[in-house]
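Researcher: I'm preparing a figure for a lab meeting and need a structural model of a single chain. I don't have an experimental structure, so a prediction will have to do for now. The sequence is pasted below. Please return the structure as tokens so I can convert it later.
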Amino acid sequence: MAEKKYQVPALMRAKKILDLLSKDEADLQELVNKTGFPKSSTYNLLQTMEDIGFVRRLNNGSKFALGFRLYELGNLAVAKVSIRDQAIVHLRALSEGEKITCHMGTLDGLEAVYLHKVDPQDSILINSWEGRRLSLNRSAMGKVLLAWLTEEQRTTIIDALSFEEERTPYTITDKGSFLEEVRKVRKRFWAMDDQEDVLGIRCLAAPIFSPNGAVKYSLSVSSMVQNMPQERIGPLCQRLLKTAGEISSALGTPRKIWSQMLEEHE
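Model: Understood. Here is the structure written out token by token.
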């Protein structure tokens, strides 16, 4: 059994407030109602986070929003990920060539997070953003990032995920079925979110291999179902895998490590 880590209560409460403000601005009472925290401690947390720039008051003085210091820190964190520089040209080519939204992301705890997004010009745009966090069990990217972990790592994370929320009629709510789906992803080198998180949105994802053979990043494409019908999935998957291989190569990964995913779909 994994050792339970100690968490600082005040930090966890601050995180919950920031998560709520990431969705919409709110005043003190709204935050108290949504979190269930005492009003006095909620106010003290807001005051402290305002002082350090994590939250800011809007013009009316009563509502709070995320502060620009978070934006600054987020950009500094992303700037350290050099893969962005290596991948951007390939994401743009895929996005414009297929007229589809492309994302690149990584695993962060029990979630995936988008590190980069490229939208096509003159096409339907997907409501997503750099820094957006994704459920591992309701996203194609999450399935890919889980598939190349060790069996022990994968099982530990999946055991910690919640399968209770049925976002759409297509959401996988059975842990055993999801684990089997992840094993299939490992064999075929790609994953699909078939309206499992948002009704009407379909996504495909593929692994980006590091020089040591590990998969720390994933490439995905997302679109409305009508723009990604069943007959388009095969050709689009081939283009996705080709681009993932090109990014892997740009990172210095030997062709012998990533070429198999192309050979499987020739």
